[in-house]
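We include the entry.

. . .
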Amino acid sequence: MDDLRALFQAQKFPGARHAELIRRTATPLRAAELGRDRSWPLRRDWERVKDDVMRRAVTAKFTAHADIRAILLDTGDEEVVEDTSTDHYWGRGRSGTGKNMLGRILMRTRTRLRADLTQNANTQGRRQRR
């Protein structure tokens, strides 16, 4: 399961058969549809943990894939916005005043990735000088 959406949606139902169905979906859209299916109960602590689940999923994806990591890093210090009119929590929503939590998580991830790259470069520099 390499897709961020499937990873995130499956975490709503840990240990349930429904989570496995989400993990095996062929498309991110299908994973989202299954994740929004309320015939399956969400984990009780979902509202409390969903931001951390998204943060971990985003970190894993951008750490594992150099191509998209480069795209994120190339945004410099620009604001990253999840531009959706339908989601006022993860995006900016129709009114433009949504929380943009996904954008915020992406910007924090960008900062951490930069710090890691700087630290790795400094470590490499010290090794080469020895």
